[in-house]
Amino acid sequence: MSSQLRLAVDAMGGDLGPRSVVPACIRFLKKFPQAELKLFGPSAQLQNLIDDERQPRLASRLEIVPCEQVITQSCNPLQAVRHKRDSSMACALQSVASGEVQAMVTSGNTGALLALSRNILGNIEGVRKPALGKALPTERGFCYLLDLGANIDCSAEDLLQFARMGIEAQRIHTGRRNLAVALLNIGAEPHKGTEEIRRAAELFEADPKIHYAGFVEGHDIFTGVVDVVVCDGLMGNVAMKSAEGVIRLMGQKVFTIEKKGAFKRFFGQLAIKLLRKWRTQVEPARYNGACFLGVRGNVIKSHGGASSEAFYRAMITAKECAEADLAAKVGRAMAEAEWNRAMDKS
Amino acid sequence: MSSQLRLAVDAMGGDLGPRSVVPACIRFLKKFPQAELKLFGPSAQLQNLIDDERQPRLASRLEIVPCEQVITQSCNPLQAVRHKRDSSMACALQSVASGEVQAMVTSGNTGALLALSRNILGNIEGVRKPALGKALPTERGFCYLLDLGANIDCSAEDLLQFARMGIEAQRIHTGRRNLAVALLNIGAEPHKGTEEIRRAAELFEADPKIHYAGFVEGHDIFTGVVDVVVCDGLMGNVAMKSAEGVIRLMGQKVFTIEKKGAFKRFFGQLAIKLLRKWRTQVEPARYNGACFLGVRGNVIKSHGGASSEAFYRAMITAKECAEADLAAKVGRAMAEAEWNRAMDKS
């Protein structure tokens, strides 16, 4: 398996574009001698960056696929599907569809990615709505949160499918079997939340494949009381981005303290290494790379503001998904008879 | 004004009950010699805690109002309104309604508080749905976020009212006039979000009283790019609690690093004071106390897990609201002609 790792990388998109993607690719190839990368983007621009890095030996494992068309942040999903079929993002997805690569990574426009993934790869049979999911650090390990923003309106049945897909992804990530699944809500009491959330609770409870642990609140995502947290894309997006915002705020506050006063600066210097280590344990860059679950292929979305370090982390996530063949596992899980029966009842 | 500060305090509810509330009251009375407190709860239990504190001089400014009935965390809103009219929470609200006190503080059951507040105090004229709001720390100051969980289903018109109430609250908190208002969404682009969010954007844009700054994402709450962020109670609750969860996680990670290795422990000791100061700049306890905006009286909800320190902070928030008479200001803002006209159009 190890000699077979082939990933597609969309070099465009994200705030830094190829300036973060190319160095991440070089680092990835150095770290994993069995890996091969197909890099999609404007060839002249990419070639320049790679020459700068002076990595002639890696060239044989790094294939540049020229794509002059680029999807900008303002491009809406419909435009992407209709007019951006030759873009670096669409071509990278095509290479997943054709089986040339086992996974693709991009830091580009999320809406366009979701629309193009559905269009080019297609949904896994039985999946109503693919969802974005990600493992977040907790006090005890990791919690898989989904949907992170692919779907605004979610029925109880959609949330049930998210749970099943999230369980598969978290199994691959943690290697554990018996995973506790919760629904994100504004309180733990059974009467809380929207009708869809309460109806989802009934479906989760009735499903023999789900070890349902009840409602949890936003802070419980990070305590590690459960392994998978399911919610609609609006709540999941707000949860993840608010958490990221606070981490950035704390980083900024450290910097402010560091600057004030000679005495504090002295201890600040001693403390700063520790502070950095502390922060890196929870910072978003370390856990970059959301998986688009429910489409016929492994699609990994990096944070749009990803640094080279962060994009490299997203590539590691893609490697994990590719080696475990997450999309195929999700496909098998969704095809299981008991599961389909539960959905038919609804 | 300063000789007139009278607050009602619900001693029951929250994880710690009177054990966090009573020390906070003692500290508050010591700090503010002009303040008088009415403390609602089982008198024997409260008297014991106050005797323990040995504060005979403060007794004249701390009136215990005996209430044996208590609202538990499992009590639902309807039960509270029907069967808990003699509870410490309901009696504290009654003292706001009668004008005996200028504000009340509780760390009890949120659902019960919202239902009892509406029932005992009534909504301000023209307010469809009161909302919970709170000022959160940002990189540049504070951002007022609402609704934090009072309302699950919110129309565009509800969100417009939240904006107006949030502006008043943030004006009092910051003393500033021209406040930028945003809607919380999953992206900044105009096509993002639910229909209600997009419709709210149109209403905000058309309102001459609102300096509308567009959509923001979860992380923008903490950057300080805007002064007021408006959303439904589900999104607001998830945003606030996810942020709190990450801060707690970071605290726990520091502790883990501190324990490992002698060398690190040595520097850890030097660094720990600085780390604590850093964390207190953003930790939830420091910014405790959400205001229930839109009812005829100043009602402040403390975090349920509040320590004595955190409950004291909620009392400071209550003092601010009482001295500025936030509820009256919200009432005047909602009565303004232009505002009503904008609402009528909808």
Can you characterise this structure?
2 copies of one chain form a homodimer. The first copy, chain A, has 346 residues and is of the alpha/beta class. Chain A has 2 domains: 1-127 and 294-325, Isopropylmalate Dehydrogenase; 140-288, Isopropylmalate Dehydrogenase. In chain A, 49% of the residues lie in helices and 16% in strands. The first copy, chain A, has 12 helices and 11 strands. Chain A has helices at 18-31, 43-53, 77-83, 88-97, 110-121, 156-174, 195-206, 233-259, 262-282, 308-324, 326-335, 337-345; strands at residues 6-10, 36-41, 62-66, 103-106, 131-137, 142-146, 180-184, 211-216, 228-230, 290-293, 298-301. Chain A has an 11-stranded mixed β-sheet with strand order 3-2-1-4-11-10-5-6-9-7-8, with helices on both faces. In chain A, strand 10 and strand 11 (298-301) form a beta hairpin. In chain A, helix 3 (77-83) packs across helix 5 (110-121) and helix 6 (156-174) crosses helix 11 (326-335). Chain A is globular, with a radius of gyration of 21 Å. Chains A and B meet through helix 8 and helix 9 of A and helix 8 and helix 9 of B.
